[in-house]
Known about the structure:
heterodimer, A: alpha/beta, Rossmann fold, five-stranded parallel sheet, 11 helices, 43% helix, B: alpha/beta, eight-stranded mixed sheet, three-stranded mixed sheet, 18 strands, 50% helix, 14% strand
Amino acid sequence: xxxxxxxxxxxxxRQEPYYEPAGNEIDIFEAAAGNGLPVLLKGPTGCGKTRFxxxxxxxxxxxxxxxxxxxxxxxxxxxxxxxxxxxxxVWVDGPLTRAVRxxxxxxxxxxxxxxxxxxxxxxxxxxDRRLLPxxxxxxxxxxxxxxxxxxxxxxxxxxxLKDLKQSxxxxxxxxxxxxxxxDREVEIxxxxxxxxxxxxxxxxxxxxxxxxxxxNGLTEGASTRLIVNAARLIRHGIAPRQACETAVNQALTDxxxxxxxxxxxxxxxx
Amino acid sequence: xxxxDPAAQRHVDQWLQILQRDHPDLQAHFSGRLDRALALLEIExxxxxxxxxxxxxxxxxxxxxxxxxxxxDAFAEDYRARQSGVRLEExxxxxxxxxxxxxxxxxxxxxxxxxxxxxxxxxxxAFLNVFDRRSDNxxxxxxxxxxxxxxxxxxxxxxxxxxxxLQLPGxxxxxPVFAALESLRLEARxxxxxxxxxxxxxxxxxxxxxxxxxxLAWSEDNRLLLQAGAGPMDSMDRISGNLGKPxxxxxxxxxxxxxxxxxxxxxxxxxxxxDKLQQxxxxxxxxxxxxxxxxxxxxxxxxxxxSGVDPGVGFNSVNQGPGALTLLFGDQEPVADDEVKQLLVSxxxxxxxxxxxYLQVSGGYSGYxxxxxxxxxxxxxxxxxxxxxxxxxxxxxxxxxxxRYRNEFCALTEVDVAPVEDNFYTGTLEKYRFHLQSVRRxxxxxxxxxxxxxxxxxxxxxxxxxxxxASADRRQGLExxxxxxxxxxxxxxxxxxxxxVDMSGSTRGWVNLVEREALVLLCEALEMLSDPYAIYGxxxxxxxxxxxxxxxxxxxxxxxxVRARISGIKPRTYTRMGVAIRHLGKYLQALKARSRLLITLxxxxxxxxxxxxxxxxxxxxxxxIAEVRAGGVYPFCxxxxxxxxxxxxxxxxxxxxxxxxDVRKLPYKVSDIYRRxxx
Lengths: 270, 679
């Protein structure tokens, strides 16, 4: 007996999400998905990886189940567990199992954050076996051709504990994402938020300046997501400098000295 | 005396009483100048003046104190200057970061006699006190730096323009005209891209009405320079037409031009950067296996292209940074390499374009910096024969020319660092006491991690998953598990770290001092975490005498002896890194920790007598790193060598190193790097 609270159809993306391709990542993803190959999306935070997944889900007409990985996420959280319902134990599929059963896309966001035991269930799904062992049910699920596993990972993390092992990474087709080229980023801001080109250009220029400070006081520069947030605030009537302060500067750092530099850079263009 | 508010009056009465107590004459002279003092200075200023008088009286007697009272005007002038003035050293770190943020070639900010840029540094006065308000003087520093940054960024010092400028007849007359024309062009460019900065430039130009009118007239006469596409050649073309006209006044942030100094720097850099770029492209070609597999042919001869360069502006007009550039190999995906892009930015700044031959990498480039001793261990190594070593351990060394190991090639001995009993350790703790407080706070939060353990026999809460499973088992007639609780445990970090400290001769002086200081702070931080850690130094001379210096073993506590050994770390001879990595990696591999880190503190490339230089040393080090990595050790390098971005990615991998741009910052940064690495 099983009980799944959310119907798989509800994970479907029905409206085309806005996505500006950077290169031939759409073709590569389609080829990988068509050949049953898992995909690894590499890139800094907020550069469009999740949006790309939503777009591909819409394009391939397959639901996407997204799991935001965290350090307490275990294999059981992905595969499923028993719950008590009306005095009976009921098995509930985890997101990965549901994606496998229904031939959906399973997107494990920031995979390195998850517990190491998750690799036990990911590995057999990522090679030519395409199997998901469900130990508690004594079941071995074979993934249908439509199932596609995608994981994302930020290689900029300099942490021993957050490194993706070779045995895991060498199972994936890797797509490298970085921040969009400036002209394209301006276009994204205009289309995504409705700000005018001048405001978008100013925000992209500011973001570019903060990216120049990467490893020079900042761990990461302002992502496209951050300046999209700033643009939305501006569109809503917040003064540009205030919008940048709350949506970008304060999100980037707590270090007063660096914050001063970021503020001054902001003031130079805003 | 002017009418004073009650609080100020109480202050005045107090001063007079104090002076009366010390000497009635002092009080009398002070009272005589008090009105003027209150007119010149605020209450705080008069307070400072009185302190100075008393100090004079205490040290040099009544006469000197009375003289100080008489010199009130000079004191007031100096006091106001100190209140509103700004010292460069206060702003230097901010200015360098700010300019880095603006983009382009990184520029250093330095104190100089003249205000100018030589295209690698911007020289500014040590002290600025042009405006009454301190904040305005701070802004003036920033604007002066930005103006000179713009000279670099917008082609003011392009090689072709500079050579033409220096060939002009009557250069002393032409140069100020060129500077005035360039100021129109550069400020128009700043106005276009940095409206916020431009507002400040206008506010603080320190021009009177006449000066502004003259600038306006010059702008009208030279409108073409105000257009976005204008370059330094356009300014040059207008010199003859403007010779003899009265020059506009210099603005507060304008500096001077020293074209000969710039040309010298520029010619040297242009040559170096072409070599560096081609070496880096050859290396990138080799490091992109996907590109080679895709049939792009020999990576050394493949076609590189760069997009995002706007011939008019030099760069994409939206973004001023290397992010605007796209580096492509054949028709493949863009290659992301920030160091190469930064190099391209610098080249485009110097030449105004990227010459085609810069991207044509010939097969001769190996992708590694060449040295005259690239041929592997040679006669020099043999010259060091006959060393008497006590119980050395032998290690292999990778010889890339043979593509195989030289077995039992390196003789390594391990000795204790001779302890030095002085107050270096406690002195360092005192020197960095404020920084240490924040390090301790941040390390405390790392140490106090908790994790939830499930399926325990007893605990704080019921483990619902376990209970559900147990219920299912019971219904199926199976035995119920007893492990039905969850509890919080202090999480075990399970990280072990080995610090491998460069003790080569090149660390003599500052580097050795900051290395030792960094180790002191690390010890203090690591003691809080209980992460097992060890510290070893390495040096040596030829493969026959490789030395490892014990400072602290894993099993050793941070005792007074260990502290004295840190103090005793001295520069020795050379840097044969491969053997040291193999030896220390072996210690780490023997430990039972989940994460094992080998952190090298270094100041340069591997280098030793007997051919261990250039490519040979780098290949062996890279091989040794691959060996220890295969053994479950995570190697990381912290270096102070600014050239390290050229070679460390090849040896350690692109995310496994950090370059500290200023050696003095090492003690401040190293604990932070460790924290980042292990959380």
